[in-house]
Amino acid sequence: DVQLQASGGGLVQPGGSLRLSCQASGITFGKYDMRWVRQAPGKGRELVADIKRSGRTNYVDSVKGRFTISRDNANDAVYLQMNSLKPEDAAVYYCGAHWGSVDYWGQGTLVTVSS
Predict the structure, then answer these.
(1) Residue 96, SS3?
(2) Going by C-beta distance under 8 Å and a sequence separation of 6 or more, which residues neighbour residue 59?
(3) What percent of the chain has pLDDT over 70?
(4) In this predicted model, what pLDDT tens digit does every residue of 6-43 receive, in sequence order?
(5) Beta bridge partners of 102
(6) Rounded to an integer, what distance in angstroms lies between the CA atom of residue 8 and that of residue 20?
(7) What's the CA gap between 46 and 27, in Å, rounded?
């Protein structure tokens, strides 16, 4: 049974930081590219960042220089460090695992950015 358990969301003021974590189980973690997507109210899902099996990373332009994705293959976990948060970063954040034609998604964690 595949599980991707995201955590770390919460309420933060603009300019603040949060670190999201995603704990995977039921997959051979090192085989998968891992990704974080977000969905704001009334909007579609947006790919925020991904990290390949090789460790190569990609970011959507709006978060470059502020967010950092990382993975810990020994512990089957992926992280998203979010700094200098803006109100427009507020969304439900989901972590996903991708390998070939297979995609798994976890439940989301809510990030609220407000003063």
Answers:
(1) strand
(2) 48, 49, 67, 69
(3) 100
(4) 999 999 999 999 999 999 999 999 999 999 999 999 99
(5) 99
(6) 4
(7) 24
